[in-house]
Design goal:
Layout: H1 3-10, E1 19-24, E2 32-38, E3 43-48, H2 57-72, E4 85-86, E5 96-97, E6 103-108, E7 113-114, H3 122-139, H4 157-170, H5 177-188, H6 195-201, E8 208-210, E9 219-222, E10 228-231, E11 238-240, H7 242-253, H8 271-285, H9 291-295, H10 297-318, H11 330-347, H12 349-360
Antiparallel strand pairs: 1-2, 2-3, 3-6, 4-6, 5-6, 7-9, 8-11, 9-10
Helix pairs in contact: 3-7, 3-8, 4-10, 5-11, 7-8, 7-10, 8-12, 10-11
């Protein structure tokens, strides 16, 4: 799609000035995202929602509006910013449908900030943790029932496992040794699959507002100070377990090799980064955690890389229908990274549990 066409789409919304330049932004696996430059100097974010993933874009926007309304009533500190949607110029709707049936939205841009895919220092890791903690602290009193479940089954590991089993049954046998290794890896960890959902069913864990996808590059850092100033990519905001947010943030931030590496020997769970991230998180949101929440933190840290690996592997077996890929084996490579990370977490279980106990004092 040409920059001129994208600018026309941006101009459908109530922006300050007119769009004069549009360029790709970020490297998300689901939506198409662009940065919009305007004649007024104000920047915005233009996104085409992937309706194969978000089948009810109206509910996605309703959640975003509920979130921004809630945060407007809070006193935001330390330069914290909240992404807000802009309405269409004519209809005041929050979504615009183009001639091809695609749904678009326009969001405010977090100025003077940047994101990173791989953490460079424990100080940066602490800011990522603090950013997630600040987000949870801001939304913890937003009633979960006011948010729609825009991705039913998202972060429900038993459902991913059931889908994987069905996909595996439909696939012909393969002599690929990496596929065989993944199949054996998943089979050996079947007891891990229900650990968080079982705790929720027993009333030990509660549904709360969650970000849903708090990987490292969804926390914006001030370019001048390095401090966390916002969380972006809010499509997945919904009721859920905050453990999935905590586990996913650590999964994303504590593997120095990054998610896209093919050097599996370099993949490991870095305890120094984990200490920093958890310290930052607990400084902002530690008071929100119950004894049961703390008791299940290690389970979340182990489960989330396994869950993402399972999702990548399932998508590979299904023909790469969900995640964007650069080549046919891309999702298999991604799965191997996450499974290796899971192994590293498991090998350090006692050290991770001791770290949690030390930092929480419980």
């Amino acid at each position: 799609m040409s920059s001129a066409h994208l600018a026309e789409l941006a101009n459908c919304f109530a922006i300050d000035g007119l769009a004069c330049a549009v360029e790709p932004l970020g490297n998300g696996n689901v939506n198409d995202t662009y940065r919009v430059e305007t004649t007024s100097g104000t920047r915005y974010v233009l996104q085409r929602l992937n309706t194969e993933v978000f089948q009810r874009p109206d509910l996605v926007m309703a959640n975003l509006q509920a979130l921004t309304r809630h945060c407007r009533g809070k006193r935001l500190q330390d330069g914290w910013q909240v992404v807000e949607p802009l309405p269409e110029r004519v209809s005041s709707d929050w979504l615009h449908q183009d001639g091809d049936g695609h749904w678009w939205r326009l969001l405010t841009y977090i100025s003077g900030a940047h994101s990173t895919d791989v953490l460079s220092s424990p100080q940066q890791a602490a800011e990522i943790g603090r950013g997630l903690g600040r987000f949870h602290a801001l939304v913890h009193d937003l009633p979960a029932e006011q948010l729609a479940d825009t991705l039913e089954g998202f972060h429900i590991t038993p459902l991913y496992y059931a889908q994987y089993v069905q996909t595996l049954k439909r696939r012909p046998a393969s002599a690929d040794p990496q596929q065989a290794w993944c199949i054996a890896f998943v089979a050996a960890r079947q007891p891990l699959v229900p650990v968080l959902e079982q705790a929720r069913a027993e009333g030990l864990l509660q549904l709360r507002p969650i970000h849903g996808d708090p990987k490292v590059n969804n926390v914006m850092l001030c370019s001048a100070t390095g401090c966390a100033v916002a969380m972006v990519d809010l499509d997945t905001v919904k009721p859920g377990l905050i453990h999935t947010d905590i586990g996913d943030a650590l999964r994303s931030g504590c593997n120095p090799a990054g998610e896209e590496t093919t050097d599996l020997a370099s993949v490991h769970f870095d305890l120094v980064m984990a200490r920093a991230m958890l310290s930052g998180y607990l400084a902002e949101a530690g008071s929100l955690l119950s004894e049961h929440d703390i008791a299940h933190l290690y389970d979340a840290i182990r489960l989330l890389p396994f869950e993402l690996g399972l999702r990548f592997f399932s998508d590979h077996l299904a023909g790469n229908v969900y995640f964007k890929v650069d080549h046919p084996r891309h999702n298999l490579d991604r799965a191997l990274v996450q499974f290796r990370l899971t192994e590293s977490v498991e090998a350090q279980e006692q050290a991770i549990r001791s770290l949690i106990a030390e930092l929480t004092g419980r």
